[in-house]
Structures are given as structure tokens and as C-alpha cells.
Amino acid sequence: MTALGWAIVTLVLAGSGTLVLGLTLRWVDRKVTALVQWRVGPPWYQPFVDMLKLMGKENLVPSTARGTGFLIAPLVALASTLVVAAILWHACFRPQVGFVGDLIVVLYLLTMPALMTMLGASASGNPHAAVGASREMKLLLSYELPLLCAILVGLARAASLGGAAWTFRLGDLVQAQSTWPAVASASGVLALLVAIVCAQAKLGQVPFDLAEAECEIMSGVLVEYSGPSLAMFLLARAMLLALMPLLMILVFWGGLYTGAWWGILTFAGKYLLLVALVTLIRNTNPRLRIDQTMKLFWFVLTPAAVLALILALNGH
Amino acid sequence: MLNWDLVANPLVWPLVMLLAAGTVAYVAARRVVSLCRVLSVMGAGLTLVSGAVIVGTAPPVRALWADLGGGFVLSLELAQSRLGMLVFIASAVFALLIAVYSLRALRGADDEGRFHAFLLWALAGACTVALAGNLVVLLVGWEIVTLMLFLMMNQGKDNAAAGAAKTYAILGFADACLLLAIALLAAQPGGSANLSLTRGPVAVDSYGPVGYVIYLLILTAALAKAGAIPLHTWIPSAAADAPTPVMAYLPAALDKLLGIYLVALLSLRLLRPDPSLQAVMMVVGGVTILAAVLMAMMQHNLKKLLAFHAVSQVGYMVLGIGTGTVAGIAGGLFHMLNHALYKCDLFLMSGTVGRACGSDRIEDMGGLARYLPVTFASSLIAAGAISGIPPLNGFASKWMVYQGTLGVANKPLASAMLLTAVFGSALTLASFVKVIHSAFLSRRPALGWPSGQTPRESGLLAGPMVVLALACIVLGLAPQWVLDTVFIPVATGGATAAAGAGDLSTALWSPTQATVLILLGLGGGLLLVWLARRNFRSRVVRPFLCGELAAQGDDRFRIDGTHFYRTIEDLPAIGGLLHQGQGGAMDLYRWTGRYGHSLVELLRRQHTGLLCLYVAWCILGVAVTLAYLLLSAGV
Q: Which residue of A has its CA nearest to B570?
């Protein structure tokens, strides 16, 4: 099969798989939240029917909007998330073969959903959305620095474990951790903790849902979206919910590649643990203000991540 | 005596043609402006054609100028190299696009004819630098470009003269550094042969400590031209008042090409840097990226904002070349080309937008996407490219710079620089989200249009921008050709580190594949929509404002982007630094001015007008000179 054919097959498989997984995780999230709040919670298929229903709804465009940008933004967000899904799952199942892009490409593609949310919000011409867009951007700036620093810790650990040069290649990172994961060290634990908080912000989950903040700015960035366009954004977010834990496992926790038959079980365990953490954080914290968020990320988490990096550079 | 070899060599023709066309345009500037317009478009076009003709065919040319004795020979040497020809052709392309843009943008301006003359001369200077076979010829072209920049900036409004003077002072200092470096280099064993740019590099320590001094002097000259911190302040100062085509032509495009070309020449053909010099370059690059982009985020003037980005992006190039790895050098040089493309586009955008809104203040803009859709689309692409959005060209070169940085042996430094560079990229994105929102997507302020008419697209203004935006896409999707033809061979010849030599053969960014996948993803999304509802249609409704009804021109519901990042200005530590930066704390020119003034005051106080005091100073001087002569003669 040609490289392009293979890429397309991967995209379709990984994309549809992540879509289903993401919506299922969305259900897990809602169910756990309901249990925490002493409610019954929705049935397992609820997120799927929500999406189907939105797809069938009418698409409303505000009169102040720039129509093209407003309608294309959610599509681009979904498309770039699909490509990230293809790259990450490929690195998970076939780490020895390079595919489309490395960690840098993934990090840049992962900013696309946020960027498209901002552009779509800005194109809607709604003042609530504009405030939301500015918050989304500041949120992105906040978590980008500690997240990157934490990822460099993963790179440093992988290089010292695998005895090879530093690399951005996801496959090499996974293979270097085949016997001993990066997280099995002081720096690795610290970096993973920082990365989890950053993932929470990247997913726009409470306590970092200030770009939406229903009770302040009426869903902010999404206020004017409805019908299929809204469904696209929500699908992209559901996929991110499935992808962020995967990224962390690939960088810090050795991926799927364990060389033993029970690798798949431990993988599932790690995955569920990370998802459970995300849900737990979301259910036990109130929303932060934007200045509190920036201070938390720049003045608490970034120094922590830098400390982890210094430890990692010294072999701890 | 006329040297026929020289005249017959095709390398000389474009230079002579440009100088002659510029002279004719200058003479005709007041009377026949239309002739100037024709000359500048034709001159730039012909230079482009001649570049395409001479590439790879024309032999080098060398003619004796003067023998100054002591092994120092001044000679006129021209030779073509891969990188030099790239700079040559790119300069001609930018000159052509700016000439076309100015046909509309400067129509009716007082100095329109002269602008075209200066444009041609500046192009002649840039081509001389690109073809220079030794440093002396390079210096001549370099000076021409500096002078033209000064003259063109002076044509601006209001405070343009002050900005131009500052520019000339900083660049003049830089050029003096270059001249001093040339003198020092020629004084070393080997004489004027050391100045050759075709000879291949020698290790920087082969001249002893002087080698380092020479390296740093030339680096200073190159970085001042390109605009890296701390010699960057002329760009933002000039940006606000200089004519937009000038900003798009010189600081955004040609000066970047030339400055980074000189850094490349210095490191790859003159003096091979050692790890300490490379570390200096990397740190300069990193600091430039971060400090300038933070300043850019705070600007309220669109041109100043772009100017700070023009500084910030230089950091990536210097960082890339400083890594000494193949990927880093090739990426840094590739970024030089990419940056010239998108920054030229963005400056042209600022000109068009400023024209439409009658102001360069971001607060006064808004709602332009509806009226200038082509400008909006091309600016969006250029903004995406400068922020490194895959799969545009800015991402391709940044990706290579990151790979190169990762290959640096000094891991703490490499980590710090990577953090700076990637975070700088996020800050750039933030800055352009603000610009795109404020200028194009937010609501139009109630004050209406300055001319009373809604703005319309003009082919002459939008055409060059479309060309540049397309170039950003093409170089992003298919960078391989230009990388294989120019940048990778140049970088392979000059890389000092073994690390990173192999990482391009196993390169892992396939833009074409990624684009196909993104397009497929878009198709998949559309398919979902189509599956869910065959007749996908939209209904236009009022925006949701919690029940408020916004009247036409009601600014209560308009959010311009100028306060998007107020939160950052209010943060502890960072906010204070930013305010100091705004106040000019980073401006060497300002500091030099302040201390220079104190020095002058001190000297002025000595001027009492008393003859005996002057005589005493003279005698003291003579005594010191005598003492020095006696001591050095060993008496």
C-alpha cells in the first residue's frame, strides 16, 4: 500500500475510533459527575443521541457574523483533531514506523481547535464571544509553557532511559520507554502531574472553563453556535478528551508498547486512571478567574515543571 | 582603462541597469512621474528575469581596483552562490511586488517619483550584496541599502525624520562595525585574501582573540540590519511614520534577507564559530524572540505591532544558525525567506487597512472582512504562517529550527531555547488573534469611514498580497524543492555539529500528507453534516445579547481587541517588565543618547573661553604624546 493510502486508512480508523471513544468518555464523565452530585445520570448512548440531534437541527448564523469563517472554523477544528488522532494512534500501535509528523506537529495541531474556536467566536460578532475568545487565548498562553516544559522532561527521561539522542519522534519516545517508563522517576512524576493540570485546561474543563463560563458570558466562544456547527466543535472536544490522556501515556508512560501480552490491560488501566483524574478534578473545583489561572500556570506550575526539567537533566 | 571581461560578464548587467534606471528615475522624479513608475516596475521585473537567466551559468568576475600595498588589494569581485542567488531573486520579487503596490498606494504623493528611484537603487544595493565575492564589495552594497532606507523613511509623515535619523544612527554604527571588522581582517596574515567570500571558512580561533572580535563585529552589523535585540529599536521607531511600502520593502523583506545572509556568510564562509559563539547567537536569538513578541502584544498601533514581530522573528533565524546543526541552519535560512514573504504581506495589509480606516490605531479599525475579503484572506494566511500554523511555510521552517535546537549538545541551553521559541510562537499567535479580530472581524466603530465611502478592494493593492499569501502556502506544502536546492546544501557545507546531520534524512514532517489528511478530515466533517441533514441550510438571526437590542453604530456592544491581554500587563513581575520596555528601557539608542549628552555637558563645561586653559590642555597633550613615543621607542 502506498504511504498516502496507508495514511488515509489510519485516519479513517483512528478518527472513527477516537470519535466513539471520546463520546463514550464523555458519558463516563457525565455519569461520574451525576453520581458525585447524587443524580442518576444519563444512559450510555446519551452523548451519541445528543450529537445526532444537533446534526439534525437548523444552523443559525447571527446577522453580525462573517458567514464563511463562522461556518468553516468548526470544520477545521474537527479536521485537525482527526489528524492528531491518526498520528497518536499510529505511534501507539506502530511505534517503529514514522508517520506524518512528530511531537511538535502534534502540539501545533492541538492548538488548532482552540484557535478555530477563537476565530469562530470572533467571526460571530457577538461581544460575549469576543470576551470568550480573549480568555481562550490567555488560557492557551497559560498552559502552553508548563505543558511544553513537562514534555521536555519526557524527552529527557526517554533519552537517558533509551541511551539515545533527544528526539521529538513519538515512536522513538515510546520505544525508549519499553522497559522503564519516564514517569518512574521524581522528575517524571512531577512532570506528569503538571501535564495533567495542563490537559485539564486544554480540554476547557472546570476549573478552567472560563472561555465558556455559562453563568458569566453565556457560553462565551460558543454562544452563537447551534446545530451542526456546534456539533462539530463538541465532537472535536470529545475527541480531545480521548486524545489528551493518550498523549500523556505516549510521552510519560511508555504507550502501548510493552512487549508483553498484558500490555493492553496495563494500557487500559493507565488510560482509565488519567480519565478518572480529569473527571475528579472537574467535579471538585470551582472555576478560576483568568488572572488566577494565569498566575497558577506561570508562577506555580511553570516553576514546578522547570524544577522537573532540572531534575531530569541531572538524571533523576 | 575599461575592463572588457568585466563589462561582458552577465553578473554586472543587472547592477548597472538598476543604477542607471534609478538615476533616470531620480532625474525625472519631479517632471515625469509616470516614467518613474514604468522604470521601477520594469527595472525590478528585468532584474528578476536576469536573475533567472544568470543563475548557474554566469562565471565569477574579478577585476583589480587598487593595490594599496602591504598585501592589501582592493578588487571588484562578483560571484554567484546558491544562497546569494536566492537572495538576489527574492529581492527582485519583493521589489517588483512593492513597485506594483506603490502604483496605487503612493499615487499622488509628493515624493512618488523619488520613491521609485530609491527603490531601484536599494535593489541595486541588495543585488550587489547578494553577488559580492568579497567583503569590500559587500560593504558597498550594504551602505547603498542603508542610505536608501534613510532617504525613503524620510518621505514619511509627522515624525518620520526622527525615526529615520535613529535608523541611520544605529545602522551607521553597525556599518562602522563592519568596516572595522574588514580592516582587522585585512590586517591579519593573508591580507586581503581573508576578505574573500568564496574561499571557505577558517576556524574563528585561527586568528587568535582578534578572530572573536572580528566575528562579533560582523555579527553586530548583521544583527542590527536584521533587527535583533538589542539593536532592534530602529524598526519600531520608524514603523509608525514611515510610508508602508517602505516598511514592507526594506525592514520587513530586504533588510532581513541581507542581515541573515551576512550571518550565514560569516558563519559558513568566513569564520567557523566555536560552541561559545554559537551559544551567544542562540541566546541572542531566544531573548529576541521572547522580548520582542511580548512588546508586540501590548502595542495599539498596527504598524508598531508588526515591527516588533519583525524583530521577534529574527530570533528564530539567529537561533537556527546558532545551533550549528544542519536542520537548524537550513531552518534558520528557510525562515529568513518565509519571514520576508509573510511579513511583507502583513505590512502591505497594514497599509491597506490604514488607508481604509484613516488610522493605524487598532481601536479605530474593525469590520473590514466584509469590505476587503481578499485582503482579509491573504492576511489570515500570512498571520497563520507567522504564528506557525501547519501546514503553512512558517511552520515548516520553525519545525526545522526546533529539530536543530534539539540536536545541540548543551542540553540545558537547548531546553531553554526550545521553551522560548515554542512559547514565543504561541505569543505570536495571540498577537495576531488580536489583530485579525480587531481589524477584520470585530464590529465597525460608530465613527464610520474617514472618506465617507465604504472601502473597496483595489487590484493593485490586493494583487501583491495574494501573490505573497500563495507563496506562503506553496512553500509550506512543498518545501522540499527549495530545501534540497538551496538550504540543505548550504547548511551541510557549514554545519559544525555532527548531531542533527542525519535528522533531515529521517525527517518526520510530511506537509503534503498532512494537508491531504486535513482536507480529508474536512471532507469527513462535511459528510457528517450531509448525512445528518441533506438540505443543510442556515438561517440568519439577530446575535444573542441577553435581550438587549443593539442599534446600528452602538459601541456598547463592540469589543475591540486592544484590551485582550490587559490581564498579562497586570500580572506581577511581567507587567512591570513590559511597562519598562514600553518606556524604552531596552533601547540602547536612548541610553547612548542620555549618557552621550552627559559627556557633552562635561566637555562643554571645560569651554570657559580662557586662553591659558586651552594652552594648558595643548601642552598636556603634547607631553602625553611625547611620553608615549619615548616609552615605546625604549629610550
A: A291
Question: How far apart are the C-alpha atoms of B396 and B380, rounded to whole Å?
Answer: 17
Residues of the domain holding A208: 3-313
Contact B308, B292 (CB under 8 A): yes
User: Rounded to an integer, what distance in angstroms lies between the CA atom of residue A132 and that of residue A127?
Assistant: 9
CA distance B255 to chain A (A): 29
Q: Which residues pair with B202 in a beta bridge?
A: B271
**Weakly modelled stretches of chain B, pLDDT under 70:** 1-5, 70-71, 494-508, 532-537, 549-554, 635
Contacts of B509 in chain A (CB under 8 A): 100-102, 104-105
CB contact under 8 A, B532 and A228: yes
> 3-class DSSP state for residue A301?
helix
Q: What one-letter code names the amino acid at B528?
A: L
Query: Residue B633 phi/psi, 5° resolution?
Result: -80, -10
Residues constituting chain B: 635
User: Chain B contacts of A5, Cβ < 8 Å?
Assistant: none
Tens of pLDDT, residue by residue over A283-302, are: 888 888 888 888 899 889 99
DSSP letter at B466 equals H
Amino acid at B509: W
Residue contact B545–A127, C-beta within 8 A: yes
Q: Looking at the 3D structure of chain A, how many domains does it have?
A: 1
Q: Going by C-beta distance under 8 Å and a sequence separation of 6 or more, which residues neighbour residue B66?
A: B73, B74
pLDDT, one tens digit per residue, over B552-600 is 666 777 777 777 777 777 888 777 887 777 777 777 777 788 888 888 8
Residues of A in contact with B517 (CB under 8 A): 7-8, 11, 82-83, 86, 100
pLDDT in tens, A23-72: 999 998 888 888 888 898 899 999 999 988 888 788 888 887 776 788 88
**CB–CB contact A11 B411 (8 Å):** no
Is residue A74 a contact partner of residue A82, using CB atoms and an 8 Å limit?
no
Torsion angle defined by CA atoms of residues B396, B401, B407 and B413, in that order, rounded to the nearest 10 degrees: -150
Chain B touched by A94 (CB under 8 Å): no
Please indicate whether, in this complex, the C-beta atoms of B516 and A4 are within 8 angstroms of each other: yes
pTM: 0.88
- Compute chain B's Rg from CA coordinates: 26
